[in-house]
Specification:
Order of helices and strands: EEEHEHEHEHEHEHHEHHEHH
GO molecular function: oxidoreductase activity
Shape: globular
Structural class: alpha/beta
Keywords: Oxidoreductase
Oligomer: single chain
Distance between the termini: 47 Å
GO cellular component, one term: cytosol
Largest sheet: 8 strands, parallel, barrel
Number of strands: 10
Radius of gyration: 19 Å
CATH architecture of the domain at 4-181: Alpha-Beta Barrel
CATH superfamily of the domain at 4-181: NADP-dependent oxidoreductase domain
InterPro entries: AKR_Detox_Biosynth, NAD(P)_OxRdtase_dom_sf, NADP_OxRdtase_dom
């Protein structure tokens, strides 16, 4: 499978990253191991998780995803076959926190759960207004110096704070954010296009996008409100069932039919075709991984990329 180099990191990843939010939520440990083995056997190699996954599930406290991945790494012996990314800063019970001491402690806890001596990418998962960026970056600098973190990234951060952080790192000779993780998909891409695209180009940042399939809407299986009970994520999909969403589904249907593939594969292929972008997507079934494989091998024409983009920009004229 073709590999993509993530910005300035030197890390070579397959074109789709596995989203580990499903581990300990919609997949139990046994099912998670099976999906992870299949994912790597197909030629994919990057897994994205966070300390807060999957704290939102009843009875969970956070760390469930990392624990499952750690147990899988230990049992499978595949640590050297994967690029591992995790994150810190989201509310683990005491509010959002990206202070110096918190980041250092959170990293130690994540490494313990993941049963590894280092992570390839460590993300500041969220920004906290008023929290000094020097503190966060100094903590990352310590972790990189100690060999516990190889590269750092940022998610859910304003363009202004992201730029300030990169410039401050350069001034101090610290590791800088090399990967940005925004919400970005065929339905929701205007915010990224308007606020972040120029910044990404300026610093040659890699973009690893979340909500790549808009909570499953871009898989094409949700067409109307009666479809929303098809999964636990259904309630979050209602907002896409509008005229814009229908335009996108029509274009996805046409392109998928032309390539004899799925709407999910086309949606991911559109993301892969964007500059600097490597999408994160979650899978709970082997059929989902098949869509990953098809997306990674799918070569959309430039006309098809434009057709899909235009469909996502069409709104009702009054």
């Amino acid at each position: 499978m073709k590999k993509i180099v993530l910005g300035n990191t030197g890390l070579e990843t397959a074109p789709i990253v596995f989203g580990g939010n499903v581990f300990g939520w919609t997949l139990n440990k046994k099912e998670s191991f099976k999906i992870l083995d299949e994912f790597v056997d197909l030629g994919f190699n990057m897994i994205d998780t966070a300390d807060v996954y999957s704290r939102w599930n009843d009875g969970n406290v956070g760390g469930e995803s990392e624990n499952i991945i750690g147990d899988w790494l230990k049992q499978s012996g595949k640590r050297d076959k994967v690029i591992l990314a995790t994150k810190a800063g989201m509310d683990m019970g005491d509010g959002k926190n990206i202070s110096h001491d918190y980041i250092l402690k959170a990293a130690e806890n994540s490494l313990k759960r993941l049963q590894t001596e280092y992570v390839d990418v460590y993300f500041t998962h969220t920004d906290v207004e008023g929290s000094p960026i020097e503190e966060t970056l100094a903590a990352h600098n310590t972790l990189v110096k100690e060999g516990k973190v190889k590269n750092i990234g940022a998610s859910n951060m304003s363009p202004e704070r992201l730029k300030q952080s990169i410039e401050l790192s350069k001034q101090n000779g610290w590791p800088a954010y090399e990967i940005f993780q925004p919400e970005y998909n065929l339905y929701d891409h205007e915010a990224y296009d308007e606020k972040y695209a120029d910044l990404v180009n300026e610093y040659n940042l890699a973009v690893v996008s979340y909500y790549s399939l808009a909570s499953g809407f871009l898989s094409g299986k949700y067409r109307n409100e009666s479809d929303l009970n098809k999964s636990v994520r259904g309630s979050g999909i209602k907002k896409y069932l509008n005229e814009k969403g229908q335009h996108i589904l029509t274009a996805l249907d046409e392109v998928a039919e032309a390539h004899n593939t799925t709407q999910a594969a086309v949606s991911l292929a559109w993301l892969i075709a964007q500059p600097n972008v490597t999408p994160i997507a979650s899978a709970t079934k082997s059929s989902h991984l098949k869509a990953f494989r098809e997306a990674a091998e799918l070569e959309l024409t430039s006309e098809e990329v434009v057709k899909l983009t235009n469909a996502s920009q069409e709104v009702e004229m009054h």
